[in-house]
Q: What sequence folds into this?
């Protein structure tokens, strides 16, 4: 891999992450991509995603590999006093502590903010879990499907399907992960100005309700309501990719008045723009079903190549539908180095995504490949002030463990990704 000379935006920031599954690990990975030193604290069994998906070796499955680069791993048994003591010592070296323990579990382990605030007034303490802690559902278990259902997102699918359905991606986890990242960055910015840290709560339920209601609060945004809830254009069954004459599917979205004029001109149907339903964006939204049904009929009359060529020429938004598989060969993604190929010392050649956000002066990078369970336990404990005999005792008593690897701390020179761009 070509080396990155500039340091990431979060170089010098240490993050201790005590999370599992996707929400917390992905948020911490994003911070790691930006240059933070991320310490992943795991149980002796490891993050559950180590077992989810195809794998070449035990504990290094696909979902784990996708959300745990740019980290070091330490395994600790936090149910034992020595394990909790070790965690507290590690957090003392950190700027940010992120956990996804439910409030009662957190209290039982003695890991609430009050246990850190006095000795570490500069610590950014981020708790992310299902529901706000001062509500009646504070200690309910929460996974992505549960939050999609609770937030109304699953019910939105009933508008275009036969029943409520889950969006086939972990929407709640990933949406909330972005909130974790933005909240941590905001808290670090404030600490830089004041020297004072703080506690942050990032709940999945409230995060996804906020996400859903951006457009769907609609008429209920007024008191009393001026209209029903739900943005009509989004909820019509005719809003979908359209099948072309040669059997492909296109997303075609004339949006502005000029877009519609250009679309009808390309289609040879300029007469249609005179219809009242096309008079303005407001009338198009009010008549979404009629508008999109007509759009579907017209798209079916020509091939995908013809539509893409002619609509691109007049800047009407249109894109062919990708499958998961065809994304791997997308010319835009490949031209910009989005797909990275790296050589892991134990897992062989892996494909990873490039950090999508680019910084002109402090580029994000992939510096460390996903670690084995407890791979850096010894060095992390040493950094927290533990002497070698004490570390060995923790290993012997199974409070911690350490699995050595040849070295997965650096990406291999066989990385075929492009040099990070300095264009913002």
A:
């Amino acid at each position: 891999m070509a080396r990155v000379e500039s340091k990431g935006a979060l170089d010098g920031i240490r993050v201790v992450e005590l999370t599992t599954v996707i929400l917390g690990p992905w948020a911490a990975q994003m911070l790691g991509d930006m240059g933070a030193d991320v310490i992943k604290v795991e149980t002796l069994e490891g993050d559950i995603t180590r077992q989810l998906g195809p794998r070449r070796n035990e504990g290094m499955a696909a979902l784990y590999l996708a959300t745990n680069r740019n980290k070091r791993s330490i395994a600790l048994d936090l149910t034992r006093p020595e394990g909790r003591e070790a965690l507290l010592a590690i957090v003392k070296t950190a700027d940010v502590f992120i956990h996804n323990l439910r409030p009662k579990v957190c209290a039982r382990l003695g890991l609430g903010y009050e246990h850190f605030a006095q000795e570490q007034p500069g610590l950014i303490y981020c708790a992310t879990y299902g529901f706000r802690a001062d509500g009646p559902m504070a200690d309910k278990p929460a996974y992505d499907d549960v939050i999609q259902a609770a937030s109304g997102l699953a019910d939105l699918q009933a508008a275009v399907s036969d029943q409520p359905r889950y969006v086939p991606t972990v929407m709640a986890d990933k949406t909330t992960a972005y909130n974790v990242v933005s909240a941590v960055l905001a808290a670090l910015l404030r600490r830089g100005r004041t020297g004072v840290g703080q506690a942050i709560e990032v709940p999945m339920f409230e995060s996804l309700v906020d996400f859903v209601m951006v457009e769907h609060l609609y008429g209920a945004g007024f008191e009393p309501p001026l209209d029903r809830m739900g943005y009509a254009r989004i909820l019509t069954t005719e809003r979908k990719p359209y099948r072309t004459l040669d059997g492909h599917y296109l997303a075609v979205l004339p949006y502005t008045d000029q877009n519609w004029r250009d679309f009808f001109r390309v289609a040879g149907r300029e007469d249609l723009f005179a219809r009242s339903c096309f008079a303005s964006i407001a009338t198009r939204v009010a008549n979404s079903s009629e508008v999109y049904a007509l759009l579907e009929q017209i798209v079916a009359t020509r091939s995908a190549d013809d539509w893409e060529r002619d609509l691109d020429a007049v800047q009407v938004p249109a894109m062919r539908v990708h499958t998961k598989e065809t994304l791997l060969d997308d010319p835009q993604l490949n031209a910009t180095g989005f797909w990275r190929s790296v050589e892991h010392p134990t897992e062989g050649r892996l494909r990873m995504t490039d950090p999508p956000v680019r910084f002109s002066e402090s580029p994000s990078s992939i510096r460390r490949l996903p670690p084995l369970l407890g791979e850096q336990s010894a060095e992390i404990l040493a950094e927290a002030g533990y002497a070698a005999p004490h570390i060995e005792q923790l290993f012997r008593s199974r409070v911690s463990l350490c699995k050595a690897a040849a070295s997965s701390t650096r990406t291999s020179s066989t990385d075929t990704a492009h040099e990070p761009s300095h264009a913002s």
